[in-house]
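Duplicate of #3305? Posting structure anyway:
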């Protein structure tokens, strides 16, 4: 088959959780540009609808729906809405994240809140959307983790960047778990025409302190941080027939930092 046909997502219904965030918007844009009908969902209904409206004005088939992934009833309501409005689901980009823990010495209750959303809640929405995709005939799940789920932080990157070096441990904890969960799900659902893969991005440029950017980029062979477009092609590949034989993988997207 022609490679452009393999990458074409026309006719595919794909959900992006956290679709109004930095990576979420870029992921949504990439999927829509490849022809998918994209549903973006998060707790902030107003923000989601704003992003969806902006993309609709650019002739992209993007729709906003509200969900609180820490609330099982809200997740079930999202499944019901997707089934009623779109008839099923072909893909899920598991991208939503909450960051209640602000540093190593933060109150332990913040770690518990993080796990409620990023572990228990994430497992709930992942399981529900997996079932919906299987019921719809199969498809693809892409979990968005982080390089910090694979490697410890490089603390020298934060030298000379006030306020940036106190990193929360929950972030490493749940991202590492998500990578292993991806492999588990691939084996658990073998033979059901569904694939599970994971992307672990490196540092995304977000106007950080200039000293941090300088320190970071010195260590990256490509000489820069990730930009908004870097993840788009990889998500489309893993969501499309072009990635039909990629399953149970975690792909490190860090510009060569950990090469």
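Output from current build:
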């Amino acid at each position: 088959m022609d490679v452009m046909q393999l990458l074409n997502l026309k006719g595919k219904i794909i959900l992006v959780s956290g679709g109004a965030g930095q990576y979420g918007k870029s992921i949504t844009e990439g999927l829509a540009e490849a022809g998918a009908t994209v549903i973006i969902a998060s707790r902030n209904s107003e923000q989601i609808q704003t992003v969806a409206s902006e993309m609709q004005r650019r002739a992209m088939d993007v729709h906003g729906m509200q969900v609180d992934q820490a609330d099982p009833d809200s997740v079930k309501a999202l499944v019901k809405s997707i089934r009623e409005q779109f008839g099923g689901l072909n893909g899920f980009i598991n991208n939503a994240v909450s960051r209640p823990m602000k540093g190593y010495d933060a109150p332990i209750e913040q770690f518990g809140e993080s796990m409620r959303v990023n572990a228990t809640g994430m497992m709930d929405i992942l399981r529900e959307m997996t079932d919906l995709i299987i019921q719809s005939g199969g498809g693809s799940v892409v979990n968005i983790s982080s390089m910090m789920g694979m490697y410890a932080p490089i603390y020298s990157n934060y030298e000379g960047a006030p306020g940036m070096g106190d990193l929360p441990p929950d972030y490493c904890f749940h991202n590492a778990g998500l990578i292993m969960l991806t492999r588990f799900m691939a084996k658990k659902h073998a033979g059901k025409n569904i694939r599970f893969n994971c992307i672990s991005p490196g540092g995304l440029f977000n106007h950080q302190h200039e000293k941090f950017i300088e320190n970071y980029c010195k260590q990256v062979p490509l000489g820069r941080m990730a930009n908004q477009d870097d993840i788009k092609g990889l998500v489309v590949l893993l969501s499309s027939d072009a990635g039909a034989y990629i399953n149970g993988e975690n792909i490190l997207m860090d510009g060569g930092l950990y090469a």
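Confirmed duplicate; merging threads. The longest helix spans residues 108-135. Residues 69 and 122 are 6 Å apart (CA to CA).
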